[in-house]
Input
Amino acid sequence: MTQPNPKRTSAAFPLTLTLAALLAACDKPKSTTQAPPTVTVANPATEPVQDYIDFTGTFQAYNSVDLVARVPGYLETVDFTDGAFVDKGQLLFTIEQDQYVEQLKLNQAQLDNAQAEYERQENMVKQNATSVAEVQKWQSQRDQAQAEVALSSINLGYTKVTAPFAGRIGKHLVDPGNLVGAGEATKLATLEQLVPIYAYFTVNERQALEIREKLNPNNEDPKAALENVPVFVGLSQENGYPHEGKLDFTANDVDTDTGTIQLRAVFENDEKLFFPGLFARVRIPMGEPKDMLVVPNDAVSNDQAGPFVLTVNDQNTVVRKNVTPGPFTKNGDRGITSGLESSDRVITNGIINARLGRPVSPQAPSASTSNNATSTKQ
Output
């Protein structure tokens, strides 16, 4: 019979104790209690909020004109830089003038001759040396010569193409040396007035009725009712709607193809920030501001059931409240038209950690957080 090795038995004894200790540690129950997540809560503020309707539109020139050659001749000079802003009356193109200068001289000479002969015939008729019919003939020739002088003077003036108003001119379409105005008017360039400038946009029938109800409830003269209606616009890269203008035109009828009505606003554009074809975000305030509950815009979430906010009840449990969002405030907060009470504790920070029906640890916003809680989104 083999005897046990005392050395092997003594070496295995510490290993047995270690395994027993590990097994005992595994049998101890683990603590599953975790502290509820911390969230920031605040009561909705009550502020006057301006209701409005938003649209999209485009800018168009206040005036636009195609500059053309009104008399035939070779183009001599282009007197502007393509794309430059020009003043009213500024010289833009010059057409050869020699033939028109000489034609004016010829017509003036014919007028001088006709005038002299008419005066001679008048003196002769007083002496019964000519007939009244002869006087009338020369009077007619004198008048025709005057008309020819006036016409040739006008044609000479057409050789200088000037700006009819101040604006921005496009590129020149004809180079010097080319024949223009022969047989038909030749387009030379396009000039657009940008100060002021128009913004055109369309509204659907429902929006049109809403605008009429709120801005012209007494069905007054539409032009008079719209004179003081402000319109605000913002460009695609701008926050909010920083530029103010005035509504100045509404179409008389509804476009039957699109079911929309065209409106137009005018903007001063002294800084020449807007130009034709530029996209515009348009906003029209609807009536006077009204008091409304306001929460930070980031506190409003959306899912398939609609917009909602998360609140904390008296048991510090997360509760969902379905809300109807209203307009934004100037600071980017969101007005709430229904679904909230002023006493509700709305979660404004830590929403990602909040779970419906689960407890949380609510905290009031710190001074720095409350000052920066609102978003700048519009």
Remarks:
- The longest helix spans residues 98-126.
- The first strand starts at residue 38 and ends at 42.
